[in-house]
From TrEMBL:
Name of the molecule in the record: THNS1 protein
Keyword Amino-acid biosynthesis among record annotations: yes
PROSITE patterns registered for this protein in UniProt: DEHYDRATASE_SER_THR
Keyword Translocase set for record: no
Organism (species): Oxyruncus cristatus
Length: 737
């Protein structure tokens, strides 16, 4: 068996190993000595008896980077090709490949790995090692596998310059690009850490990224979450105030009524890293971005990649998942309606259920509570219905929606998506009541404690108050910008504006987070309908609900007066001042208004501008765009289009978030297209719209759902929190008992 053990273990300073020079330094300059010792100890303790195993395609720089990392850690460096395979075979790797052929080569290579062991070393694998399952499993048992993810275009350029013309698998029938693409799933199966190398960067920089990534992997304490209402002094005193990603996905709302946010903010990507994603698919972009936001101790990177592939694979009707379409002039549409329930909510809610199921303990049942103004309900029900059967047995969903505050098709969707473990209840009130009632239920310790003791069931949230709902939305804003660069519309680094129909402030907050992470977004434009409390707030700094009544509009998903995610944004610009946030939102709750101080309003107005759209202007925009382009906007996108027309200065492209498919709002769309007589049957309405042969076509998922379910049955209840609690307990009894 081939053994290499760490030949220089951690050297403790003793009377035998401490040189007179070190002793002199320690006595004369204790602070400087302490800094040197701390740095030295840190690098050695990083490895211990584990190996750092570098994996990636040929040309990824594994050998060079391995040597640099080994030098920095002062530990053995092993190159599998040069130091192990060629030594064992007594011939070069290329000669062996030519001698035995591709299939036999992989098997012979795997056998060598199975007979190899090392400790405390940096190991550079061959490009084909990950294709032998047993060999890789053996290597992984005593190592941290680091995937050097280099864009395929960069790899091909490197291999060409190196005159590499033979790698395992390359034959007359397969191109080099084919082989590189074929190997990617094997790399994704085994890695613990991905180091995304972006554009062609120096090996020294990549080596530093490897060390940083390994440090992050070994220290989950670096990535904790806090409540928007926690004070700095309280956080330092209360050990339990820090939560991890797996905690907050399950918990949803903080115990003090605040919302969870990352304590150290979100990671920032370099321009080179973003540019390395220009050629990537949507799924690949999501993997790279979300892996940097979710610690592997919460969800291992390879598991996260599997979840992302499941969420954004066959469930979306467009291969690009979130395509960007040119509308007119400098305006572009980000189409966010290609998921199974035809709204942007699918991006979070095809992913979140799998994240949730991965984070919850196996010993407890969970009931997901949802309040929806239209699109969230069906998206939650559909997303959780796609879990594995074993997960569905311990996770149920209760969806509350305003009975008369959603479109007929939205209601049909929510009713049709009901399953044995998922129910929808109409409430005789508006969305704000539903959302407030759920918050009250979560903070009612008597009720939640009763459910836990009596039924072994905990409550969790799937609304955008849950951090796992917001995180996936960052991806599509970043992806839209990268698509414009890929299409040659702008060079990387040129700014864009983003205009978003806004109600609960989650989508626009995700765009702002993308900006913080390095996407060159200039302004985020908040587009309101006639419920324009946010527009007034952004313009004046006064959030005032006194005397306001919710208006039912054609764009029902943004018929909201209390914008929950605004709290996260204010916490951010107030430098994480939880006491101020608590004061503002307590005042809003008790007095119906609050006002920002001048310096915070100035900060806010550097990031955000806002406008609102009347019902007449909304319908007029739908008609105008269809008449000139043949494209049908939904009512929410039309609101954003109207506001974008008014506020953009046309000095840069503007990306308008198209948050839902127009099929969901057929009566309003038919009215905008000036159809005199509108059949009240939702299926008939969709058939009429399909006769227009417009772009985009009628949504496949909606049509199928209506054909299968019709209108169905559902329960309706009074606007009383105790009645909602009764429905919750009944579902728990029926499903879990």
């Amino acid at each position: 068996m081939f053994h290499i053990f760490q030949y220089r273990p951690l050297r403790l300073i003793t009377q035998n190993s401490l040189s007179s020079m070190c002793l002199k330094l320690m006595l004369s300059r204790p602070v400087a000595f302490a800094q040197i010792w701390k740095s030295w100890f840190s690098s050695h303790s990083l490895l211990g008896n584990k190996n750092i195993i570098l994996m990636g395609p040929p040309g990824a720089g594994k050998t060079t980077i391995g040597r640099i990392v080994g030098q920095k850690l002062d530990c053995p460096v092993i190159d599998i090709d040069d130091d192990v395979l060629e030594t064992t075979w007594n011939m070069s790797v290329s000669e062996k490949l030519q001698d035995v052929g591709y299939e036999e080569f992989l098997e012979e290579e795997g056998k060598v790995l199975l007979n190899f062991s090392a400790s405390g070393s940096v190991i550079s694998l061959s490009g084909s090692n990950p294709m032998h399952a047993a060999g890789m499993q053996h290597m992984k048992e005593n190592g941290i596998v680091v995937y050097l993810d280099v864009p395929t275009t960069v790899i091909m350029s490197r291999l060409k310059s190196m005159a590499v013309d033979r790698i395992a698998g390359l034959s007359a029938g397969h191109s080099l690009k084919d082989i590189l693409q074929f190997r990617k799933p094997f790399y994704k199966r085994w890695y613990d850490i991905r180091v995304f190398c972006g554009e062609d960067v120096a090996a020294e920089i990549v080596a530093e990224k490897v060390l940083d990534a390994v440090k992050r992997y070994q220290d989950s304490e670096l990535e904790t979450f806090i409540s928007t209402r926690s004070s700095r002094s309280g956080r330092s005193m209360e050990k339990d105030s820090h939560k991890y990603f797996s905690d907050i996905v399950v918990q949803g709302l903080a115990p003090d009524g605040g919302l969870f946010v990352p304590e150290r903010r979100l990671p920032k990507f370099t321009a080179g890293e973003w540019q390395g994603l220009i050629e990537a698919t949507y799924i690949e972009r999501a993997e790279v971005i979300l892996e940097r936001c979710i610690h592997p101790a919460d969800i291992p990177a390879s598991k996260l990649a599997e979840i992302i592939g499941t969420a954004y694979g066959d469930n979306f009707s467009c291969s690009k998942v979130a395509p960007v379409r040119h509308l007119a002039g400098n305006q572009f549409l980000l189409e966010l309606f290609h998921g199974p329930t035809a709204s942007f909510k699918d991006f979070a809610l095809q992913l979140m259920p799998h994240l949730f199921a991965s984070c919850i303990p196996r010993s407890c049942n969970y009931l997901i509570l949802v309040a929806t103004s239209g699109d969230t309900g069906s998206a939650v029900l559909d997303g959780f219905s796609r879990l594995h059967d074993t997960d569905k047995q311990r996770i149920a969903v209760m969806n509350f929606f305003p009975e008369d505050g959603v479109s007929p098709i939205q209601k049909s969707q929510m009713i049709g998506c009901q399953k044995e473990n998922a129910r929808s209840v109409g409430v005789r009130s508006d969305f704000d009541f539903c959302q407030t009632a759920i918050k009250q239920i979560f903070t009612n310790s008597d009720f939640t404690g009763f459910l836990t003791v009596e039924y072994g069931t905990a409550l969790a949230a799937a609304n955008s108050i849950n951090w796992a709902r917001l995180l996936p939305q960052i991806v599509y804003h970043a992806s839209a910008y990268l698509d414009l660069v890929h299409q040659g519309i702008i060079p990387f680094g040129s700014p864009v504006d983003i205009c978003i129909p806004t109600g609960n402030f989650g989508n626009i907050l995700a765009a702002f987070y993308a900006k913080m992470m390095g996407i060159p977004i200039r302004k985020c434009i908040c587009a309101s309908n006639e419920n324009n409390v946010l527009t007034d707030f952004i313009r004046t700094g006064v959030y005032d609900l006194r005397g306001r009544k919710l208006i039912s509009t054609f764009s029902s998903a943004v018929d909201i007066l209390k914008s929950s995610n605004l709290e996260r944004y204010l916490h951010l610009i107030a430098n994480e001042d939880g006491q101020l946030v608590t004061q503002l939102f307590n005042q809003l709750e008790n007095q119906g208004h609050f006002q920002l101080q001048k310096d915070l309003l100035e900060k806010l107005q550097q990031d955000l501008v806002a406008g609102w759209c009347s019902e007449e202007d909304c319908l007029a925009a739908i008609h105008s765009v269809y008449s000139t382009t043949g494209y049908i906007l939904d009512t929410h996108t039309a609101v954003a289009k109207v506001v974008a027309d008014r506020l953009q200065d046309r000095t840069c492209p503007i990306i308008i978030s198209s948050t839902a498919h127009y099929s969901k709002f057929a009566p309003a769309i038919l009215r905008a297209l000036r159809i005199a007589e509108i059949n009240q049957n939702p299926l008939s309405q969709l058939h009429l719209l399909s006769s227009y042969s417009a772009l985009p076509p009628i949504h496949w998922g909606l049509l199928e759902a209506l054909k299968k379910t019709g209108n169905g049955d559902h329960q309706v209840c009074a606007a009383d929190t105790s009645v909602l609690m009764h429905h919750i307990e009944t579902l728990i009894q029926n499903h879990f008992m």
